[in-house]
Every structure is written in C-alpha cells, then in structure tokens.
Design a protein that fits this description.
two-stranded antiparallel ribbon, mainly alpha, about 5% strand, about 50% helix, about 425 residues, 3 domains, single chain, 8 strands
Length: about 425
C-alpha cells in the first residue's frame, strides 16, 4: 500500500519550491529545527493585500461588508468564528455560496472576479482575519465591568477611580489591543498578591467582558475593538512561542507538558480580546507553576502578543490533513463523480482532475472559484443539485485528487 502521508509531504514540499520560484512565495511555508526536530506549516497570505483585493479589483465589497463597511446585498463576513480546519471552512463557504453569489453578480451586471493562487491566498487570509476580529465593544457595558471586577479600586480611567495604579485609558489608547494584552500579562506577576488581597480573589473575565472593558477604557479610540485590525505574524509568533512558551506548552505534541497542549486540536480563543481574557484568567496558576519549576515569567514586547496569537490561531488554519480513501468516497457522495467519474479520471461532462497537479488548499480553492460559473451552468443544464461540501471534506478530497490513480503518471506541480 502506498505511504500517502509521505507522498503528501513530498507534494507539499514540491509546491513550496515551485511557489517560491514562480512568485507565489509565502503560500505554504515549512520551518525545521534540528534539535529537537519540529515542523511548522502555515499559510502566508497577507491580509492587507486581501483587503485591497476585497474592496478593490475583485469588487467583493459591493455586496459584502466587513465590520459594517461595504455592501448590504450579502452578509457581513466579519466576526463569524470559523470551524476547524479554518481554511477548509473558508474554502467550502466560497464554494457552497457560489450559485447565489453568481446570481447576484449577474443581477448587478458585475463581472465574475478572477483570482489566481496568490490572490486567493491573500483573500483567504483577509477573510480569516475578518472572521476572528473582535466586534466593537460596548463602552457602557465596559464601565460596569470596570466597577464590577474591582478595577476601580486601584486604577482610574481618565482620572476617575483609584490612584494607586496607572490610568488605564493611557494604556489602551497608546497600545491598542496588543498593548493592552501585553501590559496585562507583563504586570500580572506584580498584581496577583495585591489584587487577591484587596478583592479577596482574582477576577475572571468571560464572554465579551474584556472587549467591553477595552471599549470603556479606550474612550472610543483604540477601543474600537472590531474596527482595528490585528497585524500579527504567524512566523514571528512561532519564534515567540518557541522561546517563551514551549517549555510548558506543546503544539502538535512538541514541547512541555506542564500546561495544556495549545493546538491544533484545542479550541483556542481567536481574537485578542478573548486571548487577553485567557492570559489574565490563568495568570495566577501559570505564574505559580513557573515559579515551582524554576522558570522565569517571560516578558512580552511590542507586537509579540499579536504574533503569538496569530501563530496559535493559525494552527486551526493549517492545510487540512486527509485520507485519499475517504476522499474518493466523498467524491462520489458529494456528486463530483457524476461529471468527473468515480476515479476523477474524467467522464462525459467533466475532465480528468486527479493526479495531474499537486493541489494545496489554496490552489484547490482557486480552481473551484475559477471554474465555478462553468460548473454551475453544467449543473443547471443537467438539473442537478449544487454539491454542498463540509469543511472537513477539503483535506480528504485534496488527498484523493493528489493520489496516483492505478497506472497513472507522475504528479506535476
């Protein structure tokens, strides 16, 4: 039986090499450390470039909005927590809604936007960022949180409140969410004892409380939680994690076991406000364990909190793993085989799409997007239902399409 795990690794390596040489650098990135050996794979689309495409040449903003900015014909795409694997979820959202989108485009007489692989990577990265962005907090609710959690005992906001600790408004406005999260973590070590003594316990944040608190202390400036974008880097975040967190936490089985593993199977917070809550809520326990183990509490600098979150959140954005055997079954069950044949070798209504190219999730999404209108026309002609996919289908389908058919030819990246 072929070793499909090794084959997939080889395929991804080949795609990465070709991508670098053809201007698609950053779509797939591998990083190896020799001692111990660790592997990190993440997608490197640039959200800022995706945003420019979304509101610019691809005209998505005519129908869709992000954080209320854009059209109202179709849903606002921000704040929709992606299911794992996130990139698979985004891919099937694009696919499943293509008939409706194409119909709207025809009604509005706008052309169907084309996207190459590089553009698709940027678009997926932007949509992912939009999906995990914090909503704009409620300042009125934040004022209640400020009082209810006991912050006012020591801190003030715009000179109103306690005087024994810094005014939190200055922290929020100067640093935004990244600065807020960084300050909360870096100062937790000196705050645990006095706060616990003053309040009788360590206050806990849940739901949108941290987001609302940020809105209140920021006075509507940096506190526009959902309106400010998070500019973290997964690559930098890996180095932050490796240096500061890996002695206690693991990812993909690599790292310490003092604290829980952090990905990709663990359901982690995906926004800075939620991440701030987790860091704050668990600070006393984490600091105690580090002290018992003789570890120094790491101090985070600059954008390192945002970088760390992008790395951890990116664990749920990985190329989805899959089985070629399950993929072949899904290929038939989802209706793809009706046009392309049970082996995806080509049939009367569709071409051969197996073993001819090395798909990544980005190239897979780009191919489905590019051929969507033609496929929709064929589906309508044959009076068939549009095939609906699940996020977990993507890895299996890609694995099947990348596998060698019996007597097939070598995959060509």
């Amino acid at each position: 039986m072929p070793d499909f795990s090794k084959r997939k690794q080889f395929i991804l390596w080949m795609v990465a090499a070709v991508a670098a040489s053809t201007g698609l650098a950053g779509v797939v990135v591998w990083e190896f450390r020799s001692t111990p050996r660790r592997t990190v794979l993440y997608l490197e689309g640039v959200p800022e470039k995706g945003k420019a495409l979304f509101f610019g040449s691809k005209h998505c903003g005519i129908c869709h909005a992000i954080q209320g900015s854009g059209g109202v014909v179709a849903p606002d795409l921000s704040g929709k927590r992606p299911r794992a694997p996130a990139v698979g979820w985004l891919t099937v959202v694009l696919w499943n809604h293509q008939p409706g989108m194409w119909q709207q485009m025809r009604g509005l007489k706008t052309g169907y936007p084309k996207m190459n692989q590089e553009e698709m990577a940027h678009m997926l990265a932007f949509l992912y960022q939009a999906a995990i962005s914090d909503r704009a907090g409620d300042a009125e609710g934040g004022a209640k949180v400020f009082e209810g959690k006991g912050c006012a005992h020591c801190h003030s906001v715009r000179s109103v409140g306690g005087k024994t600790a810094p005014d939190l408004g200055a922290v929020a406005v100067s640093g935004g969410y990244a600065g807020w999260s960084r300050a909360m973590w870096n100062h937790a070590q000196s705050m645990v004892a006095p706060v616990t003594k003053e309040l009788g316990g360590w206050p806990q944040f849940s739901g949108e409380e941290m987001n609302d608190l940020m809105a209140y202390v920021g006075g509507g400036k940096a506190a526009a939680g959902g309106q400010q974008e998070m500019h973290g880097s997964a690559e930098r975040g890996w180095h932050v994690f490796e240096k500061n967190c890996m002695q206690c936490h693991s990812v993909r089985g690599q790292g310490g076991n003092v604290g829980p593993g952090l990905g990709p199977e663990k359901d982690l917070p995906l926004s800075l406000a939620q991440f701030s809550s987790v860091l704050w809520n668990h600070a006393p326990a984490m600091l105690k364990q580090m002290k018992e183990k003789g570890f120094a509490a790491p101090a985070l600098q600059g954008e390192q909190v945002a970088d760390l979150l992008m790395f951890l959140a990116g664990m749920r954005y990985f190329e989805p793993a899959g089985s070629p055997f399950l993929g072949q079954r899904l290929f038939t069950e989802r209706g793809c085989a009706h046009c392309h044949g049970a082996e995806a070798q080509g049939a009367r209504f569709g071409p051969n799409i197996r073993g001819r190219t090395a798909y990544t999730v980005v190239s897979f999404a780009a191919a489905m997007w590019a051929h969507g209108p033609k496929m929709q026309s064929k589906v309508e002609e044959l009076a068939m239902a549009w095939p609906v996919l699940e996020a977990t289908d993507v890895g299996d389908l890609i694995s099947f399409l990348n596998s060698q058919p019996a007597g097939g030819t070598q995959l060509m990246p």
